[in-house]
Amino acid sequence: MQQPLAYRMRPRTLDEVVGQRQLVGEGKIIRRMVEAKMLSSMILYGPPGTGKTSIASAIAGSTRYAFRMLNAATDTKKDLQIVAEEAKMSGTVILLLDEVHRLDKTKQDFLLPHLESGKIIMIGATTENPYITINPAIRSRTQIFEVFPLQEADILQAIDQALHDKERGLGEFPVTLAEDARLHLSRATNGDLRSALNGLELAVKSTPPQEDGAIQLTRAIIEECVQRKALTHDKDGDAHYDVISAFQKSIRGSDVDAALHYLGRLVEAGDLAIICRRLMVIGYEDVGLANPNAASRTVNAVLAAERLGLPEARIPLAQVVVDLCLSPKSNSAHVALDKAIADIRNGKAGDVPNHLRDAHYKGAAELNRGIGYQYPHDFDQAWVKQQYLPDKLKDKHYYQPKMTGKYEQALAMRYQQLQEWKKHK
């Protein structure tokens, strides 16, 4: 049986890796390790279909080391022993260990000395946060790199490569892929390249050719093969982004009916990941300090939606959309931060005042570090007048409170009180 298209199109060198340029691009960490022949074990973590296995395969191809693949959950200690024996006989082996977070203690204890010696270079792959789920003994012997969902341009590039590659791809098939179908394929899988390529292969091999022999792939065919409907009939392919934009702007504008309409479109398109991410942003960007509990409720609703999956996910999503729509709004916190970042980027940072500098090392006092710092908890109201900003910014004010919610009204009163104390105490 022929391997799936996504498997056949795995990159053979780093130059063939699609996306993840922050790791494999020119001058980036994994490329440097390969070019310097200084590979070390690593853990790649991120969503499915984002290139973890592809990076491991490309590293092996670029270094000419043997490449083996195991699963920490299903493969046994004996399987690890076979890899270790191969490493002893033939030199270094690159081991892609999928679901590395499920490595039990017996397998871990066997693997550790081989990682120490460098005979086995482990590339662990996981969708779980390794700082939480990976045993410290393994974590301390690896470098941890995060991979991200691929961008639309990355998936379009991979689709085009697969359609033209006659050796590993679909180049032998006379395929005509309509542009709106191509765009939908790049967007509907939410950055999961494996799903996009396997959906494309299913479409090609299950669509009868026309009388002239050509295989015409329409958007309707792609929708069926990836099981995601397009948002609207939009020949320019902008509807996807237009609906997401209208969704956030409707919530920001407190129009609950419009927001539910656009939520319905996104639910029908199956874009759960996009909905969840956008709601998290809205909770903090648009509601913010006017109602911080709404942001917390948004996080809980998103967790519930992700666990439930569609169609049931629509229930907590609808609830939180109504909540965010009808909540008071404030963007004061992130606007204040953006002003501070703008000063920093324009060279207006300045030195940290000496009395705030770290004094927890020998010789700090001789450098005047930490001298004169007053501990606020030693004073009434847990406050004492002292300078915190650098000298060149000491009179700068970034935060401008809004009076749109009871919580921020209380913060504004406290802020004003502190300003008065600074003037008169």
From TrEMBL:
<dbReference type="GO" id="GO:0008047">
    <property type="term" value="F:enzyme activator activity"/>
</dbReference>
<dbReference type="GO" id="GO:0005524">
    <property type="term" value="F:ATP binding"/>
</dbReference>
<dbReference type="InterPro" id="IPR032423">
    <property type="entry name" value="AAA_assoc_2"/>
</dbReference>
<comment type="similarity">
    <text>Belongs to the AAA ATPase family. RarA/MGS1/WRNIP1 subfamily.</text>
</comment>
<dbReference type="GO" id="GO:0000731">
    <property type="term" value="P:DNA synthesis involved in DNA repair"/>
</dbReference>
<dbReference type="InterPro" id="IPR021886">
    <property type="entry name" value="MgsA_C"/>
</dbReference>
<keyword id="KW-0547">Nucleotide-binding</keyword>
<dbReference type="GO" id="GO:0017116">
    <property type="term" value="F:single-stranded DNA helicase activity"/>
</dbReference>
<dbReference type="GO" id="GO:0006261">
    <property type="term" value="P:DNA-templated DNA replication"/>
</dbReference>
<feature type="domain" description="AAA+ ATPase">
    <location>
        <begin position="38"/>
        <end position="150"/>
    </location>
</feature>
<keyword id="KW-0067">ATP-binding</keyword>
<dbReference type="InterPro" id="IPR003959">
    <property type="entry name" value="ATPase_AAA_core"/>
</dbReference>
<dbReference type="Pfam" id="PF12002">
    <property type="entry name" value="MgsA_C"/>
</dbReference>
<dbReference type="Pfam" id="PF16193">
    <property type="entry name" value="AAA_assoc_2"/>
</dbReference>
<dbReference type="GO" id="GO:0016887">
    <property type="term" value="F:ATP hydrolysis activity"/>
</dbReference>
<dbReference type="Pfam" id="PF00004">
    <property type="entry name" value="AAA"/>
</dbReference>
<dbReference type="GO" id="GO:0003677">
    <property type="term" value="F:DNA binding"/>
</dbReference>
<protein>
    <recommendedName>
        <fullName>Replication-associated recombination protein A</fullName>
    </recommendedName>
</protein>
<dbReference type="InterPro" id="IPR027417">
    <property type="entry name" value="P-loop_NTPase"/>
</dbReference>
<dbReference type="InterPro" id="IPR003593">
    <property type="entry name" value="AAA+_ATPase"/>
</dbReference>
<dbReference type="InterPro" id="IPR051314">
    <property type="entry name" value="AAA_ATPase_RarA/MGS1/WRNIP1"/>
</dbReference>
<dbReference type="InterPro" id="IPR008921">
    <property type="entry name" value="DNA_pol3_clamp-load_cplx_C"/>
</dbReference>
